[in-house]
Automatic annotation (TrEMBL):
It comes from the Bacteria. This is Electron transfer flavoprotein subunit alpha/FixB family protein. Residues 4-186 form the Electron transfer flavoprotein alpha/beta-subunit N-terminal domain. PANTHER family: ELECTRON TRANSFER FLAVOPROTEIN ALPHA, ELECTRON TRANSFER FLAVOPROTEIN SUBUNIT ALPHA, MITOCHONDRIAL. Pfam families: ETF, ETF_alpha. Its cofactor is FAD. SMART domains: ETF (SM00893).
Amino acid sequence: MANALVFIDNPGAALKKSSLELLTLARKLGETAVAINGELTDDVAATLGAYGVATIYQPSVEDLDDYLVAPKAGYLAAAVAASGATAVLIENSPEGKEIAGRLGIKLNAGVITDVVGLDADGTAHKSVLAGSYNTTAKATTPVSVFSVKANIVETEPAGAATAPTTAKVEVPADAAANAARISSRTEKPASGRPDLSEARIVVAGGRGVDGDFGPLEELADALGAAVGASRAATDAGWIGHDAQVGQTGVTVSPQLYISAGISGAIQQKAGMQTSKVIVAINKDAESPVFEIADFGIIGDLFKVVPQATAEIKKRKG
C-alpha cells in the first residue's frame, strides 16, 4: 500500500522538473505510487524507478484529455482507492488546483493548496495573503490532497532504484457524464524558453514596458529565463495572458525574479513573492515593488535592461 500518490498529467518524452520535485517530496511520506495520464514511455518509467516509485497506475480509458478536469478527478479518486494512499500530490497550476478541489470533494479529503514545503508527518508549509506570511497546515482527514508550487525543493533520485509495477485503474463510467468536452485545441508556438511556472529565472515586465517586451526577451534569452508579465501588460495585449504572473495568473517561485516596469501591487506580489531573489527595476523610487525586492535599481528599464544583457553576454562569451 502506498503512502503517497503523485499525479503526473501527460509526462511526454521526459518528466518535467516540477514532476521530479513532487516525487522527491512524496518520498518523505513513505512508499510512493504514481498516477499517469497519457503515454508512459520507457524513459519516463525508468526515471520513475530512479525516484523510488513502487507502482505506476494508468487509466482504463484513453480519452481523459477530451474533457476538462472532472474525469481526471474521477480517475485519481479510483487510483487512491487502488493504492491506499493517504496523501495525493498535484502540481499547483490552475488546472491542478481545480483537480485537487474536485478530488477533495470525492474523497471527503482535506485540500491544501500553494504548498511550499512538506514534512514527513504530512504537515504542509504554505504561502498566504499574497506571500506576506508562511503558515503550516495539516489535514485531519484520512486522505490529504496537496497542490505544490514548483521550485521549492532540489530534485533528488532515491538511494536505490526500483522496478515499478504497472496497473490499470478502472475510471468510473459516469466520470465524464456531465463534464465539459474540449471541442478544439490550438498548439502554442514554441518559444524555446522554459515553462513559466517552473523556470528557475523569470524576467517580467509591466506597464512600464509601454508595449515593447523586446529588451526583456533579449535579457531572458541571455539568462535562459522565462518571460512573465503583469496583468496590465497582458490586458493591453502586449503579451499573451499565459505570461501573466499574479493572483489571477501564474504563481512562480524561481531562484531569480527580475521585475522591470512593474509597480508591485498586491495582486502581482501574490504570484511571485516566494521567489528566492527579487531584482526590481523601476523609474519610480516610491514603487511598492521595492518593499519586497532584494535588489532595487531606480532607472529607465530601456537603459538598464540592455546594459545588463550586454554585460551578461560579454561574461558568457
